Amino acid sequence: MDGRDWGTFLLPYEQTVEELKVKFKTMRSELKKREEYTPIEFVTGRVKRLSSILEKAQRLNVKMEDLETGIEDIAGIRIMCQFVEDIRRVAEYIRARKDLEVLYEKDYITNYKESGYRSFHMIIKYPVQTALGQKIVLAEIQIRTLAMNFWATIEHSLNYKYRESLPDEMRIRLKTAAEAASILDSEMSSIREEILEAQKTFEENSNMTTQVLKAIHQLYFYHLVNEAIESQERFNVIWQTQDMEAMKELLDHVRELLSGAKKDSLPDGL
Ligand SMILES: Nc1nc2c(ncn2[C@@H]2O[C@H](COP(=O)(O)OP(=O)(O)OP(=O)(O)O)[C@@H](O)[C@H]2O)c(=O)[nH]1
Ligand SMILES: Nc1ncnc2c1ncn2[C@@H]1O[C@H](COP(=O)(O)OP(=O)(O)OP(=O)(O)O)[C@@H](O)[C@H]1O
């Protein structure tokens, strides 16, 4: 091992992790304010411990002088999402950023690892402004769902690096647990789709109801009193049954009455 000052070596990585955490936490709160929904649930980050850097360098045959390029995750952040679909959205936001450059991506969701591990990884180049000037460092961004994170956290604590020494039975059970987490993600996504669909239908129905009531009210302005009363009675019946097809027909009918009345009320010659 060389005699470099390891504390100083890690400084730009520490700054990178702090800056990236702030940036993605800010993105979370901004999106929440703008769109009421944010694809980012929470963000964590860490600088790899020296012992882990050295162990990985040995494992990957990276020379000491090549650590900065050979170990890509000395600085790492992790973005947790509620739904699998959110992961693609977050990746899009990252690709569009001007303050970093995506070097490459690893899609362990489509191509999950032998262990069962699922996540979306991006390796980025990040320019960090140090007291000595700009330094470009590599950093890893892991994007995953809460379920993927639950699995990976537990599997990590069971020491994924030494998986080779795990009994086969344990390996298989961990893989089965990863499948279960993936099924949970799919199920939550489909429930979410249905909830969004139901919310949309509710919104459309409530808009139509408002339009019908406004249109009936307008009939009085054109002295179509009988038509207004008859339409209101039809509305009352439809409202009880919540038959939105019939509501649409009523809306069309009242609109026809209104456009006829508007034509009749135009001055001669127009
Ligand atoms: N818990 C868990 N995490 C994993 C697993 N595979 C990868 N990871 C995480 O993803 C990171 C990147 O892994 P890889 O894409 O395989 O890249 P790598 O750094 O060349 O490979 P490693 O030697 O596994 O670190 C790792 O440093 C871990 O944080 C796994 O099977 N289980
Ligand atoms: N990109 C990341 N963002 C946030 N936390 C991470 C990231 N990568 C790893 N961690 C976490 O940091 C802790 C220490 O892990 P470590 O630095 O040994 O890295 P590892 O990625 O798990 O392993 P490897 O040596 O294979 O890269 C673990 O709790 C791990 O889950």
Describe the structure.
- Pathway: Purine metabolism; ppGpp biosynthesis; ppGpp from GTP: step 1/2.
- It comes from Paenibacillus tianjinensis.
- It is built from eight helices and five strands; from the N terminus they run αβααβαβββαααα.
- It is α+β, with helices and mostly antiparallel strands.
- The protein folds into two domains: 6-166, 2-Layer Sandwich (Beta Polymerase, domain 2); 195-264, no CATH class.
- α5 (146-157) runs antiparallel to α6, α6 (168-221) runs antiparallel to α7 (225-241) and α6 packs parallel to α8.
- The mean pLDDT is 92.
- Bound molecules: guanosine-5'-triphosphate and adenosine-5'-triphosphate.
What characteristics describe this protein?
single chain, about 270 residues, alpha+beta, Beta Polymerase, domain 2, five-stranded mixed β-sheet, about 60% helix, binds guanosine-5'-triphosphate, binds adenosine-5'-triphosphate, NT_sf, GTP pyrophosphokinase family protein, RelA_SpoT
Number of strands: 5
CATH-derived topology of the largest domain: Beta Polymerase, domain 2
Distance between the termini: 94 Å
What's the helix count? 8
State which percent range the strand residues make up. 15-25%
- Main β-sheet, spatial strand arrangement: 1-2-5-4-3
Q: In the CATH classification, which architecture of the largest domain applies?
A: 2-Layer Sandwich
The helix-and-strand class reads: alpha+beta
The domain count comes to 2
The molecules bound to the chains, other than polymers, are:
guanosine-5'-triphosphate, adenosine-5'-triphosphate
Overall radius of gyration = 30 Å
Which outline best applies? Answer: elongated
Largest sheet: 5 strands, mixed
Mean pLDDT across all residues, rounded?
Answer: 92
SSE arrangement, N to C? HEHHEHEEEHHHH
Low confidence ranges = none
Helix fraction, binned, reads 55-70%
CATH superfamily of the largest domain: Beta Polymerase, domain 2
Tell me, what is the CATH class of the largest domain?
Answer: Alpha Beta
**Quaternary structure of the protein:** single chain
Domain RelA/SpoT: 45-166
Pathway: Purine metabolism; ppGpp biosynthesis; ppGpp from GTP: step 1/2
Protein name: GTP pyrophosphokinase family protein
InterPro entries: GTP_Pyrophosphokinase, NT_sf, RelA_SpoT
